[in-house]
Amino acid sequence: MVKAYVHDDKDSVDAREAHDTGIPVSLERLEKLGVIYKYLKTQEEVEQLAKERQYKNQDTVNIQLSTFNNDEKLFNDKLSIFYEEHLHEDEEIRYCLEGTGYFDIRDSQNNEWLRCKVDPGDLLIVPAGIYHRFALDTSNYIKALRLFKDEPKWEAINKSDSADKSNIRIEYLNSIV
Ligand code: KMT
Ligand code: NI
Fold first, then answer.
1. Measured in angstroms, how far is the CA atom of residue 146 from the centroid of ligand 1?
2. Range of the domain at 98
3. One cellular component GO annotation, for this chain's record (predicted)?
4. Is residue 15 in a domain?
């Protein structure tokens, strides 16, 4: 629960491996980037937080090979989409119900990926406009709750010059200085 570290950036190694440099990342460092990482025991506590922050929608994703009819290609295609560096136009909450995985948060100032390992009970609040990506680990399974402020649509805006220049990205960068 709640373990973050600097990712080693070795892209030749499978994303599912730990990629641990051994350099820990504190919750304070994540908070400076606008990311809140906490452990909540029950789904009721998550619902409470969602209410306080005026979230209106949620869905549950079950990411494992069997969800994709055991079709490795479909499964890997989905994982590649999650692993593309991207941002969202709304703040979003992710809560791990079962299984495990990695959320990589981009620290653009230091050009580093900060890898947050999630176990059941771990929750991340990801601000609008921050670049991030998601990977499964070698256990190949996560069941996660995704909470959305508005429409339960999952629109990823991949890293690009125009995403870099978008209002949401600029607002985010202004919020962390
Ligand atoms: C995201 O925003 O990158 C995701 O929702 C990834 C899947 S949630 C385990
Ligand atoms: Ni995302």
1. 7
2. 3-8+23-175
3. cytoplasm
4. no
Q: Is residue 13 part of a domain?
A: no
Could you tell me the sign of the dihedral formed by the alpha carbons of 16, 6, 122, 53, in that order?
negative
Residue of 16, 59, 61, 81 with the most ligand 1 atoms within 8 Å of its CB, for mutation = 61
Q: What is the pLDDT of residues 128-142, one digit of tens each?
A: 999 999 999 999 999
ipTM: 0.94
Domain with residue 60: its CATH number is 2.60.120.10
**What is the pLDDT confidence band of residue 149, given thresholds at 50, 70 and 90?**
confident
Q: Which amino acid is at 42?
A: T
Looking at the 3D structure of the chain, how many domains does it have?
Answer: 1
Decide if 21 contacts 6 (C-beta within 8 A): yes
